[in-house]
Amino acid sequence: MPKGIKKQDLPQKICATCGRPFTWRKAWAKVWDEVRYCSDRCRADRRKPSKPA
């Protein structure tokens, strides 16, 4: 039996800046409840008004 969890079974969230879904990463294991942005770029752009889609 394979070890670990399949990628499709990992928890997901929606990025507060770009609105795209992103999945759990091992680096976020201890702070997953506090993660709001999918990347450093989105975190840096959080104060800028978002562009209309």
Question: Layout of helices and strands, plus pairs?
Answer:
Layout: E1 12-14, E2 21-23, H1 40-44
Antiparallel strand pairs: 1-2
The biggest beta sheet reads: 2 strands, antiparallel
Mean pLDDT: 86
- In whole angstroms, the N-to-C terminal distance is 44 Å
Strands in their spatial order, largest beta sheet: 1-2
User: What is the N-to-C order of secondary-structure elements (H for helix, E for strand)?
Assistant: EEH
Report helical residue fraction.
under 10%
Strand tally: 2
Beta-strand portion reads 5-15%
Count of separate DSSP helical elements: 1
Q: How would you summarize what this structure contains?
A:
The protein is 9% helix and 11% strand.
Polypeptide structure, described:
The chain is largely without helices or strands and 53 residues long. Strands 1-2 form a two-stranded antiparallel ribbon. The protein is elongated, with a radius of gyration of 13 Å. The mean pLDDT is 86.
Keywords:
53 residues; little secondary structure; two-stranded antiparallel sheet; 1 helix; 2 strands; 9% helix; elongated
